[in-house]
Protein: Glycosyltransferase
Organism: Cohnella endophytica
Amino acid sequence: MIWHQEGYMDKLLSLCMIVKNEERVLSRCLDSVRDFVDEIIIIDTGSTDRTKEIAAQYTNHIFDFEWVKDFAAARNEAIRRATSKWILVLDADEYIERSDGVALRPFLSSLNTRKKFALSVPVLSLTGESGNVLEAEVARIFPANKGIYFHRPIHEQLTCDSGKLPLYKYDLRIYHSGYTPEVLQEKNKSKRNLEIFEKLKESGKMKQYDYYTLGNEYKVIKEYQKAIECYEKAFSNLNPELSYYKRCLIGLIDCYIALNMLQEAYNHIEKHLSRWSRYPEYHTIKALVLNELGFYDKGRIESEKAIRIAENGSNGDEEYWLISPDYGGVFPYQNLVEYYYRKQDIHQSVFYLSKILNERPNHFYTLYRLVTLLSQSESTQSIVSLMNKLYPKQTNQDLFLLLCASLKLADHGLSEHYLSAMVSAGHDIGTHSHLRYAILKRDRSLFDQYRVNSPDIVHVDHVMPELLAALLWNDTEYLPANTEVQAVQFLHSFINTSIQGDKSIITPSAAQEILLYDLLVELYRYQIYEVYDILMKRISSANLINMLANYYYDHHHLELATDYYSILLQEGKLNAQGYENLAHFHFNQGEAEEGIGFLQAAIELESGKVQYYSTLSAKCTDEGTTETYWKQGFEYFPQYRQLISRITSE
């Protein structure tokens, strides 16, 4: 229930929001604050969905406001209508842990509101890329009626009528989901924001901060070259003491790395970011460049330095990071996972995957990789025991995530355990999961029971259980009737003719190879081996065999991977990735000479990949051979000559 105290300014805290078409997330936001705010002010800038209807369940203070492509104007309209001593500003796609919010009230009551200042709080934004979270300090709480207001039409900032507004930190975490690819696509946020910036450009009022925020917009939609142009304009002669200096610098370096402008990235790391070398960001970002160049051991050392800084800093009272604690945790952990995967060191891979899940329990791909490794050597009970430690609360979301990973892996014991746990707790696991479980258990009656509720086809993934069922039970009746989706149409035809006994060989297109790859991997996971072999005999594609071999290698099914590699070697059709994998396989066995031979073959096929030369130089003891290959490599990537010389001499 919303706090309520009669009388103007007797109220302590007003939530002020601007909204438009937020029906999907608004309830989550308002539910998170209703226990500790006195009033909720909603400014609607033109919703056409149920946003205002949902808002009306929480407040009567809902006001229409004509959108003039100016966020500050809308924000100021909201705070103008507030009647509490303090203002809290949130967006609809944000929320707060209730316990944190309740603790805010006594803190605000203890503060002197006669002074002009604002509280900056950490905003954690889920980006959707690798499950990562970015953290930023943003001013969101301030006294009402003190001449404090928003300015700038986009990425609006607080200011005050008497000059610079003092900011003080307060640890109230705000969680933001608005920058996941799904949300950006649904709401077209970047297009809207870019239109506002164009208007600002036309007015001739763009400042360094505006170029910085415009760079952020381009970075979000992966237009890295445009982002670089904006970041460089913002960063030129930028005062290092400004709050956004470090974010602008790191954003610029990230874009350089994304476009393989590694010389520029490394220059900025050593010239500018190195002044903060006692923070994890310096070491983690440096590790990224080193890894891109193939200096994996040097990258590992930098990642370990970042982790040590974070571990030592976490015991103190001050922040040990520049822009996000992830640079001392999740990011270097991810670097080390890739390092130890390459080494085929399962123990260390499991260790760092577990460390990631401790901080990102909802990161599905990490969980899937972890259970995949564990399933090859551990019992079901051992895996469940570890999962209980990683997911101690066993919420509905936790159990569903664990079930999905188990079904994707097609592990009988784990799938049965987590399905039973969800059913016992009264949770719905969905039609798709039931269908996959029926395939796993070879239970045709269970499959038929849930197939009735199967959803409409949108993607091949949606009908994969039906495709598997048709092949498992050799029955074309299970094939989806709706074949309007082109990918489904191809697989439908191929499976149908195979069930009918057609043994003719097809030569698939590149797009069809990917579809067949997905189907064959699923058949392998679900141990439908006989059908797998039948389909493989109908396909003529060295590229598909390479794809499958590399999949088995990456998933530590080394015997099958090497069988496929042997076939491809005999036919002279092994691709560069296969040669590279075989090189690392032999390096890991201590067989340097054999590994170097495979790496040289990889270079012959893909001469422009700098990582091959770096790895060869690290493993080869013959300086003449190393020098010859570097000379060849620099013909393909001359832009790295100076940088590699610098790194190898450090």
Q: What stands out?
A: Residues 551 and 557 are 8 Å apart (CA to CA). DSSP finds 31 helices and eleven strands in the chain. Confidence is low (pLDDT under 50) at residues 1-8.
